[in-house]
Every structure is written in structure tokens, then in C-alpha cells.
Design brief:
Strand content: 15-25%
Radius of gyration: 21 Å
Structural class: alpha/beta
CATH class of the largest domain: Alpha Beta
Order of helices and strands: HEEEHHHEHEEHEEEHEHEEHHHEEHEEH
Bound molecules: 4'-deoxy-4'-aminopyridoxal-5'-phosphate
CATH architecture of the largest domain: 3-Layer(aba) Sandwich
Helix content: 25-40%
Number of domains: 2
Largest sheet: 7 strands, mixed
Oligomer: single chain
Distance between the termini: 24 Å
Number of strands: 16
Shape: globular
Number of helices: 13
CATH topology of the largest domain: Aspartate Aminotransferase, domain 2
Length: 430
């Protein structure tokens, strides 16, 4: 058992000045029954708590750190930029360079605008979709999470997965008037609703859901959304805040071969600094002010430090074999666990897409938020705690994804794999 005296002290004193001691609820580790991790620093695939204990990290800043912690090139690029000025609120060549890079990598994205968080990216994209189509209704899916803006916090995933319909107090019923939240992967129901909805501005989806654990959409489901939105003159918006640059340079669009009208990016695009983006065809993006009349703005949008971190990260992922190496790492960690689950018929579901994964503690396949009812949350808590005390930081909730970075070493992945397998055999296979 790790003694975390200093961590506890920081946490308790934080509670006096920060609600719940955390700046984002999922960090509280409530769902896994421990006091929050209080981190001191990180390098490559490891983080150290303030008590000096190392942990192999699979949270990776909730997927933002594709290159791992404190990557030398990112540190160097950001440091140099810092010395030249950290923010101007004025156009820089870096923003153009970054926009050129992003539009080159993301299918169908002719123009992009940078913002500072995923929440902002999605919120701006839905306003743009409404402005462009002249319609109001947004269809989203139960268990998908799109940030904490009012209209989208309905039947949401992530930290509010277990909460009822309006996933937060403080949201007026009127804000939800134009939001329909439907079951993920349910072709028939969703098709009928789209066909009957004349006021439909957009369908918004996490094409590879990662906020109810990793639950990929069926390809047929995404193709149906593509066809039906087009038929309704509505837009299809892919929220690729997690899947963008994670499952490949072209994100979920390239993974499935389905193109959206607007794409939201976050996390990796900022290389660990606060940046996010949304973009699509010029014809749509030109509705934004100052060209058009859909207003959207931000003091720190396109921030030079974030642009440098993003550019460095995106250049690295363009290197030959980058995603193959990441896949090899995922296979090294996960294939034997999958095999174990199958051979011993363990009551577990290991979901993975590329370098992100979730181990669900249930025997039924998970295809939607509705299926999560069968998950054993106490079992996840025990599993999390067992690994945590060995020095492994998995996602502190059953409903979040784990991420493998390019910095995870084979040695650490083998060590973690053996710990997980031993835990599963001892607890489930005897
Ligand atoms: N969309 C998705 C798919 C996300 O996973 C998240 C955050 N986890 C967001 C939007 C919101 O991003 P942010 O926390 O940067 O506001």
C-alpha cells in the first residue's frame, strides 16, 4: 500500500479553496474510491505523485499526450516560443502553419478555426451548423460527451454518465428545447427520428465514443447518418476531440471512410497545451465572422505556445510508421489479455481501437450507453485500486478511455500487462 501523505495534504488544502479540490470532476477519483492523484511531474510514460511514487500513466492527460509527458522536442519548441512572447491576440505565421498542417491531415477540412478547449470547439461548431442551415435541432447520442455547454449536457458521458437526463443542475429546460439525445448505434430508431425532423440542423456524434469507455460506432450506423443528414440538408458533425490524430492522422473519418461536414478537434491538436479546433468545407466555414454572421471569438485562440506544441506533435505523427508502432505497443499490452479473456471465458469485455482501450467489467457486449447498466462498477474500483498501488494509473472511471502514447516503453507495457493478467487470473479465473 502506497502511503500518500503529501498528496492527501495537498488535496485537503485544495478542498478549502477549490470546489472538491479539483478543477474538473473526473479528477476527483470518486468513482474508484481513492483520494485524487496529486501529481508532481511526468516524463515519457510515467508520472510521479508529490510523495515521490512513480506510476505508468494511461490517462495521458485524457488522451492529449500522444507523445507522452515532457517530450523533448515539444519542450524545446514551447520554450523557444515562450522567450519570443506567449500571447499576442494578433495573427502570427504559426497559426497559418498550423492551419495548413491540420487541413492537410484531416479529410474534407478546407478551413479550420482554433479555439482553446474541446467544449468551445463543439459549441462553436453547432452554432455554425445552425447558422449555415438556418435550422435549430441538434441530435446527439446518449453516452457521448461533447464538453459542458448547456445544450449538449443531456444524457452525456464522461463524468456525468450516471446522472439523469439533464446531466447537470443550472441548465434551463429551454436550453434543451432543440436537443434530442438518442441511443448510440441504433440504426432504425435514429433513422426514423432524422427523417421526421424538418428542423434538423445537425447530427453530432463521437464516431468512436470514448466517454462511456471506448465504444466504437458501427460503420453502418455512421454511413446511415451520412446519408440521412444529407437527405435532410442537415450537417453531420464528428466530434473527434479524442479520436482525431489518435486512431491515425486522418482520425475516425479515415478509419471508417465516412466524411463529416464539420469536424471538432481537441487534446492532441494542442500537443498538451490548451488548443482545440473546428473546421470543414470553406463554403460552411465562411459563415463565420468576419466573413459571415456567425459570431465566434477567443482571446487565446491560436495561442502561439499551443500552436508550437501542436505543430511539433503533428509533425511527429507524420513520420513513417508512427501509427504502426503505436499499434504494435497496443498489441503488446492487450493481445495476451484478450487471449486470456477468450480462453478462460472471463466475464470481461476488452474494447480497443488503435491506442485507446477500456476493460469493461461485464459479460455482455457494450454497444451503447444503455448497455452500461450491466457493468460492475465495484469490480472496476477493485481493479483500479490494485493496479494503482502497484504503480499503474489507469483511467479513474469505468466510463473513460485509457491511452497508450508513443513514449510507452515495451518494458513498461510488458510489466503492466503481466500485472493485469495476474490480477485477472487471481480474481476471475480460479
Ligand atoms: N468532446 C469530446 C469527445 C471529449 O472527450 C471532450 C473532453 N473529454 C470534449 C469534447 C470537451 O473538451 P474540453 O474538456 O477540452 O472542453
Amino acid at each position: 500500500m502506497r502511503v500518500r501523505e503529501k498528496s492527501q495534504h495537498v488535496y485537503l488544502s485544495s478542498c478549502g479553496v477549490i470546489p472538491g479540490g479539483v478543477n474538473s470532476p473526473v479528477r476527483s477519483c470518486k468513482e474508484v474510491g481513492i483520494d485524487p492523484m496529486v501529481v508532481s511531474h511526468g516524463k515519457a510514460d510515467t508520472i510521479w505523485d508529490v510523495d515521490g511514487h512513480p506510476y505508468v500513466d494511461f490517462c495521458m492527460s485524457w488522451g492529449a499526450l500522444l507523445l507522452g509527458h515532457a517530450d523533448a522536442e515539444v519542450v524545446d519548441a514551447v520554450g523557444k516560443q515562450m522567450a519570443r512572447g506567449s500571447s499576442f491576440g494578433i495573427t502570427t505565421p504559426l497559426e497559418r502553419d498550423m492551419a495548413e498542417k491540420v487541413t492537410q491531415l484531416v479529410p474534407g477540412m478546407e478551413k479550420v478555426r482554433f479555439v482553446s478547449s474541446g467544449t468551445e470547439a463543439v459549441m462553436s461548431a453547432i452554432r455554425l451548423a445552425r447558422g449555415y442551415t438556418g435550422k435549430n435541432v441538434i441530435i446527439k447520442f446518449n453516452g457521448n460527451y461533447h464538453g459542458h455547454c448547456d445544450a449538449l449536457l443531456v444524457q452525456a458521458g464522461s463524468g456525468v454518465t450516471l446522472m439523469p437526463r439533464a446531466s447537470s443542475q443550472g441548465i434551463p429546460e429551454e436550453s434543451l428545447k432543440y436537443t434530442l439525445s438518442l441511443p448510440y448505434n441504433e440504426i432504425g430508431v435514429v433513422r426514423d427520428v432524422i427523417r421526421g425532423c424538418k428542423d434538423l440542423a445537425a447530427v453530432l456524434i463521437e464516431p468512436i465514443a470514448a466517454n462511456m469507455g471506448v465504444v466504437p460506432a458501427d460503420e453502418t450506423f455512421l454511413s446511415m447518418l451520412r446519408e440521412e443528414t444529407q437527405a435532410q440538408n442537415a450537417l453531420l458533425i464528428f466530434d473527434e476531440v479524442i479520436s482525431g490524430f489518435r486512431v491515425g492522422a486522418g482520425g475516425a473519418q479515415a478509419w471508417y471512410g465516412v466524411e463529416a461536414d464539420l469536424i471538432c478537434l481537441g487534446k492532441i491538436v494542442g500537443g498538451g497545451l490548451p488548443a482545440a479546433a473546428f473546421g470543414g468545407r470553406s463554403e460552411i466555414m465562411n459563415f463565420l465572422a468576419p466573413l459571415g454572421s456567425v459570431y465566434q471569438a477567443g482571446t487565446l485562440s491560436g495561442n502561439p505556445l499551443a500552436m508550437q506544441a501542436g505543430l511539433t506533435t503533428l509533425s511527429r505523427l507524420q513520420e513513417e510508421g508512427f501509427y504502426q508502432k503505436l499499434q504494435d505497443k497496443a498489441n503488446l499490452l492487450l493481445l495476451p489479455i484478450e487471449q486470456l479473456i477468450e480462453d478462460r471465458e472471463l466475464p470481461l469485455q476488452l474494447h480497443r481501437v488503435g491506442s485507446m482501450f477500456t476493460l469493461f467489467f461485464c459479460s455482455k457486449k457494450i454497444r451503447s450507453k444503455e448497455d452500461l447498466a450491466t457493468v460492475d462498477l465495484q469490480a472496476y474500483q477493485r481493479y483500479f485500486q490494485a493496479l494503482f498501488h502497484e504503480g499503474i494509473y489507469m483511467a479513474p472511471s469505468q466510463f473513460e478511455a485509457n491511452f497508450i502514447s508513443a513514449a510507452h516503453t515495451e518494458e513498461n507495457l510488458r510489466w503492466v500487462r503481466d500485472k493485469i493478467m495476474r490480477y485477472l487470473v487471481c480474481n476471475y479465473a480460479l
